[in-house]
Amino acid sequence: MATDLSFSGNSVMQGLTRERGRDVHLSKTLSWLLRHGAVKEGVPITKDGFISVSEILKHSSLKHKYTLQDIERVVEENNKKRFTLTVHPQTGDLLIKDNQGHSMKIVNDTSLQPILDASEAPVVVHGTYSRNWDSIKRNGLSCMNRLHIHFAPGEPGEPQVISGIRGDCDTYIYIKVADALKDGIKFYRSANNVILSPGNNTGILEPKYFDRVVHHQK
Fold this sequence. Notes:
2 domains; NAD; about 30% helix; tRNA 2'-phosphotransferase activity; 12 strands; alpha+beta; about 220 residues
């Protein structure tokens, strides 16, 4: 007699979908707290951007919903390698930070690697959308509400690019890093290989530092 496994299979798929949904919610909440919300939410954060995992799990949006194991899994499985987990050398507490994207002025991540010569970052690309190009070519790239402008060390799909540029961007702006460094513009490399720059003293990377622009049809 044949056994109908369709109900069991559907249940498994529904369970996996729910689990993925929980992980997406956890990842987005972690990013928001670590990048933007910790100070506003009263969550202690270090100048390097670390928050105790035990404090994270006390937050109202995560409390009684997630565990340490959930956070470890989301960090391990994040394809952009967005987060770093470490153990505090004195207290033994487990700490977590987002590797880039902060808007909180309190954060001054000393783990960022300064780029001192253009040879250290031969290709630096900012991904955007054609609808933004007219404004960008006039005004330059802006940090907006973040501490840095984000760049990738190449284009999406290249092996060294795991973050720093969205996959659906249709406009790639290549940067003249040597010229910018010569003029005192700073660049850094994050732990997940995102290139970061605070721009000039007003948070702008001017169009004169654009090497070329490539528009892709999507």
